[in-house]
Write a structure and sequence with these properties.
Blueprint (H helix, E strand, L loop, with lengths): L6 H36 L3 H11 L3 H4 L1 H13 L1 H10 L1 H20 L6 H31 L3 E3 L5 E3 L9 H25 L4 H30 L4 E5 L13 E4 L6 H5 L5 H19 L2 H23 L2 E3 L9 E2 L7 H28 L6 H6 L5
Antiparallel strand pairs: 1-2, 3-4, 5-6
Helix pairs in contact: 1-2, 1-4, 1-7, 1-8, 1-12, 1-13, 4-5, 6-7, 7-8, 8-9, 8-11, 8-12, 9-11, 11-12
C-alpha cells in the first residue's frame, strides 16, 4: 500500500496532535480542576458550595474525554513512550486516578445527606480531586524536562530505576506549583462567567489574581532554570527521521541549556512563551476588572502557551533518559509504524471534528450563570 504522506511528516503531525490533545485537556478539564481546588475557600455556605459545584457539574465528565483521547493517542502513536511513562510513573498515576475518582463520587454523594459534616467531607474530597491531579501533572512534566531514570536493553525492554519520592525535586515541584496556579487561575476565570455576581465570584477573582501572579513568577523561574540550570539533552548522531523506530540506534547526551536551542534556531517558536506570559497577564487583568471574556480567553491562551513552550523546547525529544541517554525517546525513534500513523490520522480527521462539534453544542445548550436560587429551588442540581 502506497502511503501519500511520508513517515517523517506523519511523525511530526502526530507529535503536534499529541500537543493539541494535551492542551485541549488542560483547557477544558483544567478549569474543572481549578474550580474544585477553589471550592473550600471561596464558598462559605452550603448554597454557595452547591452553586460552585454546579458551574462545572454538567460538563466535567465530557471534558475528561480529552484525557482519554490523549492517553489513547500516546498508546497508539508512541508505544515506547506509553510503556516507559506509564510503568515508571505508575504510583504517581495511581495517586492521580484515586484523586480523580473522588470527583464523580463527591458529585453524586455530597447531597445525599443533609448532615453538615458529611457534606464538608465531600467538599474536601472534591478539593483533593482538583488539587492533587493539577500538582502531579505538573510534577510529571517537570520530570520529563529533567529526564527520567530508565534504560532499554538490547531487546528494547524498558527498566525504570527511579522511586516515587524521587519524582519530587525542587524543579519538578516548581512545575507542580506552576500547574496548580495556572489551573486555579483558569478556574477563577471560569467562575467569573458562570457564577452569579456576588461574594463567591468576588472571592474567586481575588484568589485568581494571586494565582495568576504566582504562575507568572513560576513560569519565569522555570525559564531561568532552563537557561542557567542543568536541564537539556541533545542528539549527537544516528538521527533518521524516516527510519524504523529503534531508540538504541541514536546517540544523545545531556547538555545543560539545550532546551533553549530550538528557540535560537527557529525564532517563530518564541510565540509560545510570549503567549504564556501574555495570556497570564491578560487573565489577571480580566479577573481583576471582572471582564469575563478577557479573563477566560487569557487563561486559555496561557494554558496553550505554557504547554506549547514545553513541547517546542524539547523537540524532537519526548522522554529523555538520565541514566542512559542512548535510550532516550524522540519523535524519530519511538513512534508506531508508517501505516499505523496514517490510518490513525484518517480516523482523527473524521472523528475529531465530530467531537469538537458536539462539545461546542453542549456548551451552547448549557450556557448561562448558576445562582444560589437555582440550586435551592431545583432538586435535579447537585
Amino acid at each position: 500500500m502506497e502511503i501519500p504522506i511520508d513517515y517523517e511528516s506523519l511523525r511530526v503531525i502526530w507529535w503536534g496532535l499529541m500537543g493539541v490533545l494535551l492542551i485541549a485537556f488542560a483547557a477544558t478539564d483544567g478549569f474543572d480542576l481549578g474550580v474544585a481546588a477553589l471550592l473550600p475557600f471561596i464558598a462559605h455556605t452550603d448554597a454557595e458550595r452547591r452553586m460552585v459545584i454546579n458551574t462545572i457539574g454538567p460538563t466535567w465528565e465530557g471534558n475528561q474525554v480529552w484525557f482519554i483521547l490523549g492517553g489513547g493517542a500516546i498508546f497508539a502513536a508512541w508505544p515506547f513512550v506509553y510503556a516507559v511513562s506509564f510503568s515508571g510513573f505508575y504510583l504517581a498515576m495511581f495517586v492521580v486516578l484515586c484523586a480523580l475518582i473522588l470527583r464523580p463520587v463527591g458529585f453524586k454523594y455530597r447531597s445525599k445527606r443533609e448532615d453538615e459534616r458529611w457534606r464538608a467531607f465531600w467538599d474536601w474530597a472534591l478539593f483533593t480531586g482538583g488539587f492533587v491531579p493539577a500538582l502531579v501533572f505538573g510534577v510529571a512534566v517537570g520530570n520529563v524536562l529533567t529526564g527520567v531514570p530508565f534504560r532499554l536493553d538490547a531487546d528494547l525492554r524498558a527498566f525504570y530505576e527511579g522511586t516515587f519520592l524521587g519524582l519530587f525535586t525542587p524543579f519538578t515541584l516548581l512545575c507542580g506549583v506552576l500547574s496548580v496556579a495556572m489551573l486555579v487561575l483558569h478556574g477563577a476565570a471560569w467562575l467569573t462567567m458562570k457564577a452569579e455576581k456576588g461574594p463567591v465570584r468576588d472571592r474567586a477573582r481575588l484568589y485568581g489574581m494571586f494565582a495568576g501572579l504566582l504562575a507568572i513568577l513560576c513560569f519565569a523561574g522555570g525559564n531561568l532554570w532552563a537557561a542557567h540550570g542543568d536541564l537539556g539533552f541533545r542528539i549527537v548522531e544516528g538521527v533518521d527521521p524516516a527510519g524504523a523506530s529503534n531508540p538504541l540506534r541514536m546517540l544523545s547526551e545531556a547538555a545543560p541549556g539545550a532546551w533553549l536551542s530550538n528557540f535560537a534556531q527557529h525564532s517563530w517558536m518564541w510565540i509560545a512563551p510570549v503567549l504564556g506570559y501574555a495570556g497570564l497577564a491578560i487573565a489577571v487583568l480580566g479577573v481583576a476588572l471582572a471582564i469575563e471574556a478577557l479573563a477566560f480567553s487569557g487563561s486559555t491562551l496561557a494554558v496553550a502557551g505554557i504547554i506549547a513552550t514545553v513541547g517546542l523546547s524539547m523537540f524532537p525529544y519526548i522522554l529523555p533518559s538520565t541514566i542512559d541517554p542512548r535510550s532516550s525517546l524522540t519523535v524519530w525513534n519511538a513512534s508506531s509504524s508508517h501505516l499505523t500513523l496514517f490510518v490513525m490520522l484518517i480516523l482523527t480527521v473524521i472523528f475529531l471534528p465530530l467531537v469538537l462539534a458536539y462539545t461546542a453544542w453542549v456548551y451552547k445548550v448549557l450556557w448561562g450563570r448558576v445562582t444560589t436560587r437555582d440550586v435551592t429551588s431545583n432538586p435535579s442540581m447537585y
